[in-house]
Here is the input.
Amino acid sequence: MDIKREISDIRGEADTWFNLGLSLQNVNRESDALGVYRNVRELYQTMGINANVQLCNDAIERLSQPKAPVVSRRGFWGWLHRLWRWVCAWFRR
Here is the structure.
């Protein structure tokens, strides 16, 4: 990014920032990626690159949505199966 900034390649700098956002998102650093996408959106807006602004908006919206809690179905069904076996064994007495 420093080199892109030194040679005044704003588009290259913005693309590098966007790729950093993707990398942060891939390593589950969503809050950092969100900040990067917001900053790079401003760069793209100043250059008038609307397609890339939309890519940033899409990424921001995706990361801003609340995550559904991960529930292990196997855990619930395993518990239910054990409960069923216990009830069956209790009635066989």
